[in-house]
Amino acid sequence: MTINLGESIRHLRHKKGVTQEKLAQYLGVSFQSVSKWERALAYPDITLLPAIAGFFGVSTDELLGVNRIADEEEILSLIEEYDNLRWDAENKWKVLDSLRERYPQDFRVQLRYMQRLLSQKHHDVAACKDEILRIYENITANCTDDNIRISARTSYISYLAVMSGIKDSGITYEDMQKVIETLPSMDNCRESFCFYHKDFCNSTEKVHEAIEKDIFRLYDSISGLSYDRKLFSLDYQIDLQEKAINALNYIYNDGNYGKMWKVVIHCCHGVLARFYYEKGKEEKVLEHLRKAAELSVRFDNLDRLTTMHSPLFEGRIFDKNTLGSDYSARQVLREYMTVHYNFSEDFKTSAEYKKILLMLE
Questions:
Q1: Phi/psi of residue 15, each to 5°?
Q2: What CATH number is associated with residue 42?
Q3: Domain interval for residue 12
Q4: Do 195 and 179 lie in a common domain?
Q5: Burial of 288 (0-12, 13-18, 19+ CB in 10 A)
Q6: Tens of pLDDT along 192-247?
Q7: What is the tens place of the pLDDT at every residue in 243-267?
Q8: Are 82 and 126 in contact (CB under 8 A)?
């Protein structure tokens, strides 16, 4: 059992609405001592535990977190449910509201609430700026989990990016750049070291995770840059996406794309369909839409848990719920084809196009 005494003191202090100075004065210690307790840099003397518990009106068991084991299991269960829902899922807000109602001081919950606010339309994000800033500052000042703190910072950068694009917001691109510069480089992340320590090397799961993240990051970075028409021609963009598909098919040669399923369906074949439409090559458009539809059907028919057998990922268990427990590749592709792709009505009424739509029903 893990006892997070510092986190418990911080949680109870915030819940009661008192400062570190007030708690320190009551206990007869310095406020620096309280600060160190909450940051897990030191622990209070055992003789102070009854006094601390009495100040907050809880038992020493509750102070030590003994009764929080069941709460932790519930939090993790709800967080998993929330994380495995698509961003546009109707009940995603409901799950988050339930988490916030029960565990408003939990930093994992606060982070997800902040990220949820940032997923809204730009004018809604701007309207929530005070709440977003409050959460960010609270996590930055009080959370001792580096992963949560860094995630909050990257989310805050997204907020600055939105605000810097709004006239008279008072936030500039330079403000965002300053925060970006405080993030660690890729060389300093966990995945960069997973091959160099025997404990990690013996953990195939961690190695697989590192490789998959690197593949996604490489694709995302190169493709994101190549979409700039001022730098790269349409022909280059098409050639790059074609080669990306070939590379991914080589890497995932068992036909199970793991966490890259969405990328292959929507970002590779879907994007190529749109690019070829710009070129006026309708046969190539239909070819890639048909392939995207075939892969969508295959993905939706997968069992939730499957074992991957490509050389780089041999034995890796892929849980399709990590892409969204309510994610339907067919449904999403159909929506893209009928709503978001700018195809002409003549093209969308063609017999071959309709056949592809039928595949997605």
A1: -60, -40
A2: 1.10.260.40
A3: 5-64
A4: no
A5: buried
A6: 666 665 555 556 787 888 889 889 888 888 887 777 778 889 999 999 999 999 99
A7: 999 999 999 999 999 999 999 999 9
A8: no
